[in-house]
TrEMBL record:
Domain of life where this protein originates: Bacteria
Protein name, per record: Ferredoxin
A Pfam entry, by short name: Csp
């Protein structure tokens, strides 16, 4: 796996993590932060997963594709939650999460043959 090949996915992951951090912090400043609890929880999970996915892609890890697939799922869940709120920070976060999910799914699909081969190799040991 070539790190440069996945630069747009790495950047989307870091952009999403930043949007999630911003959203979580802004949600805590809302008039009723308890109403934003699920949003904050997903923002935090999504940011952590996006950073992990970016790190693994940067290192050309054999597990990057699987992590990116999970990252896409978490990004979608976060986007769905954020999209329910009218606050601009939530809308911005939802958009960043959807872009990241699309990039991660693309990356995971483009490397699925390599992931299968790596998985088969690991299983044989």
């Amino acid at each position: 796996m070539n790190q440069n090949q996945f630069q747009s996915c790495i950047q989307a992951c870091y952009d999403c993590a930043q949007a999630c951090d911003t959203c979580a912090a802004a949600c805590l400043q809302e008039p009723d932060p308890k109403m934003m609890a699920r949003c904050i929880e997903l923002d935090n999970e999504c940011a952590a997963m996006c950073r992990l996915a970016a790190q693994l892609m940067s290192r050309s890890s054999e597990h990057a594709m699987q992590v990116c697939q999970l990252c896409a799922d978490i990004c979608e869940a976060c986007a769905d939650e954020c999209a329910q709120h009218q606050a601009q920070h939530c809308q911005d976060c939802a958009a960043a999460c959807r872009r990241c999910a699309q990039e991660c799914r693309s990356m995971a699909q483009s490397g699925s043959g390599a992931g299968t081969a790596a998985g088969a190799h690991a299983a044989s040991h």
